[in-house]
Design goal:
By secondary structure, the chain is mainly alpha-helical. The chain folds into 2 domains: 8-98, RNA polymerase sigma factor, region 2, helix turn helix motif (Rna Polymerase Sigma Factor, Chain: A); 115-207, Orthogonal Bundle (Arc Repressor Mutant, subunit A), CATH 1.10.10.10. It has helices spanning 8-16, 20-28, 31-41, 52-73, 78-98, 117-126, 134-153, 156-167, 172-179, 183-207. α1 packs antiparallel against α2 and α6 packs across α8.
Length: 209
């Protein structure tokens, strides 16, 4: 969800007019959202060596240096622009430390085979409705494991949309900006990803003894 406080558009206009305080607020108000994004996507093989807060700090420092150009051109909505800077740093870290081949940094496939176990677990939990009784809890525990297994089998393109929607909690507009796509296409991708996930869960249920 968007941070509380002055409207981003108001801050952008104030910053464009030279308000230094507004520039600082623009960068600071999205720090936690960026840290969450990095934490969600950080390859577990890097967790012992890379602090998400450091990645975010470097991205915000880069953003501060580029903010005047951004305010002049506005190529993306503000948060997707910040997110892309943090994303590029995350991809560079993966390339440097893991030397894994990756696609363009505008895509959402960093460390897809080794994304954090906590992210898979959290996504599984968000996709499962809570149940109040102990029996429902047992069912949820079993289903959560099945969802995690299905997510591991899901294509990277489908998984990226679910991660951005349910873990990063981005709006369709922000996802569209991050993926250089339309909101309509993002909605369709989201629905198709859920359908494919349900299909995988059905397959697993049929295979279960």
């Amino acid at each position: 969800m968007a941070p509380a406080g002055p409207d981003t558009e108001q801050l952008l206009e104030q910053a464009r007019q030279g308000d230094g305080g507004a520039r600082q607020q623009l960068l600071a108000r999205h720090r936690e959202r960026l840290r969450r994004m990095v934490r969600v996507h950080l390859d577990r093989r890097l967790a012992a060596r890379v602090d998400p807060s450091d990645v975010v700090q470097e991205a915000l420092a880069e953003a501060a240096g580029k903010l005047s150009d951004y305010l002049r051109d506005r190529p993306l909505p503000f948060y997707p622009w910040l997110r892309r800077l943090a994303w590029e740093r995350l991809v560079k870290l993966h390339r440097r430390h893991i030397r894994a081949g990756m696609r363009s940094v505008t895509r959402e496939e960093p460390g897809a085979a080794a994304w954090p176990d906590e992210s898979a677990l959290e996504l599984a939990q968000r996709l499962i409705a809570p149940g109040p009784s102990p029996s429902h809890q047992l069912i949820r525990e079993e289903l959560r494991g099945r969802v995690q297994a299905a997510l591991a089998r899901l294509g990277a393109g489908d998984r990226e949309v679910l991660v951005m929607r349910y873990l990063e909690q981005l709006t369709n507009a922000d996802i569209a900006a991050a993926l250089d796509n339309s909101e309509g296409a993002v909605k369709m991708r989201h629905l198709r990803a859920l359908e494919r996930l349900r299909g995988l869960l059905t397959d697993e249920g049929e295979e279960a003894p």
